Amino acid sequence: MKGVFSAPGDYVHFKSQVPLHKIPIGTKQWRYYDFGPKAVPPLICLPGTAGTADVYYKQIMSLSMKGYRVISVDIPRVWNNTEWIQAFEKFLDAIDVHHIHLYGTSLGGFLAQLFAQHRPRRVRSLVLSNTFLETRSFSAAMPWAPIVSWTPSFLLKRYVLTGIRDGPHEPFIADSVDFVVSQVETLSREDLASRLSLTTDAASVGPLLLSVSFITIMDTNDYCAIPQQLKDQLGERYPEARRAYLKTGGDFPFLSRPDEVNLHLQLHLRRVGVEPRPDLVHNIPKGDIGGSPSKENNEDDSDESHKDNGGGSENPPAEYEINPTSPESSGSGNLDKQPLDSSECCHLFPGGFPREKHIVPPGTPLHFVWEYIVFFHLLHIRSLCIIWNYSLEFRQFV
User: Fold this and answer.
1) What is the pLDDT of residue 223?
2) Closest residue by Cα to residue 194 from 80, 53, 47, 111
3) Which pLDDT value is given to residue 224?
4) From residue 84, how far is each of 91, 147, 197, 269, 273 by CA, in Å?
5) Which residue, 159, 287, 334, 337, is most buried by CB atoms nearer than 10 A?
6) Alpha carbon 73 to its chain's center
7) pLDDT at 166
8) 86-100 in b/e burial notation, b at 16+ Cβ within 10 A?
């Protein structure tokens, strides 16, 4: 991992375009992104233990430009799996979403299956990536789980980070690791403790009412933190699920292999009957974007974002607006003549970012030079005065 992390250019642009929502529901604080046409059933992305809502920014930007709605959430501070099911249902009610498609990685995939088991009427399909069916092995590997809520933050972060393979990596995978590590640093002690508690809380996924044909299993073939035995158990549970294998990608293929992941997500959504609404993606003036119009104070981010006032995602009548008119690259394949590319598919990403022109008044450089000259002379005069005073004192002493 790199010693100094620099945010990727596409992430900086994402933060400037997509509003971050924070809503309190009961005692839980939900932090999430909601982007894309509201007329489309949403794909909700659930991160793993080390992830935040931000780790899916490449999926949000790519799929929303195609006319899909993507919601990425932080896992709130819930301490057992029953509490998770109840809290997530209240969250969906608060944002006025009833039927959902879930994409979960690692812990997020496990939580997605639990919710689909206990709330089958709300879940229409699942995309599971590098995930598992039960927590027994994690509980056995963490004997200090009963005191996790009192464990200092630096120990929790160290424990989480030791589960992430640290190099050598190819550049894209190394960048994905650096990004996720930077997100871990933003998590509080309570956030980390609650997520580790979820991974050790005794629970297993039971039979699902959801048809197996509406499940896609997307795994990487190189390595990941989830043991292969647990991934094999998942495949045995859903033998008729659609399989999507990524040759490489590591623990975070949504960051390291976004083109392939976005392709499989779009294929899954179309296979389960979710039709995109590209007609609701409109050109907009620069600096304007669909989403909640109200500002929020974001304690975790240095830039200004937006907040949902009513517990949901309020948008202008156009529902979602972004400029998708630039041509896209064709690195991921062909799907209705729309190649899926999340990091360089259009003018929103390097090297086609729109850069603001900063107009400097003509007199500014000259004005700066004169200020510097005046400052330099004042400093010189002050030094001469000090030297003169010391010389007088020396003469008096002599």
Assistant:
1) 84
2) 80
3) 87
4) 10, 20, 11, 25, 28
5) 159
6) 8
7) 73
8) ebbeebbebbebeeb
In a domain, 285, yes or no: no
Q: Using CA atoms in the order 248, 250, 253, 259, what is the torsion angle rounded to 10 degrees?
A: -30
Handedness of CA 51, 91, 34, 123 (dihedral sign): positive
- Given a cut of 70, the residues of the chain with pLDDT beneath it are 1-5, 167, 282-398
- Helices 258-271 and 57-65 pack at an angle, to 10 degrees, of 50
Q: Give the span between the Cα atoms of 339 and 62, in whole angstroms.
A: 10
Nearest-CA neighbor of 296 among 92, 24, 47?
Answer: 24
In a domain, 132, yes or no: yes
Q: Sort residue 287 into left (φ over 0), alpha (ψ -120 to 50) or beta.
A: left
**Under 8 Å between Cβ of 131 and 105:** yes
Residue 43 near residue 101 (C-beta atoms within 8 A): yes
Residue 56 near residue 7, CB atoms below 8 Å:
no
β-bridge partners, 103: 45, 127
**Considering the domain boundaries, does residue 203 fall inside one?**
yes
CATH number of the domain within which 66 lies: 3.40.50.1820
Distances (CA, A) of 355 to 58, 73, 348, 350, 358: 20, 29, 10, 11, 9
**Cβ pair 194, 151 in contact under 8 A:** no
Q: What is the pLDDT of residue 42?
A: 98
Question: Containing domain of residue 68, as a range?
Answer: 9-280
DSSP-based three-state secondary structure for 119: coil
Q: Is 194 exposed, middle or buried (0-12, 13-18, 19+ CB in 10 A)?
A: buried
Count of domains in the chain?
1
Asked whether 244 and 216 are in contact (CB, 8 A), the reply is yes
- Residue 2: predicted pLDDT: 45
| pTM assigned to the model | 0.73
Domain presence at residue 322: no
At position 370, the amino acid (one-letter code) is W
Amino acid letter at 55? V
Contacts (Cβ under 8 Å, ≥6 apart) of 317 = none
Position 197 scores a pLDDT of 96
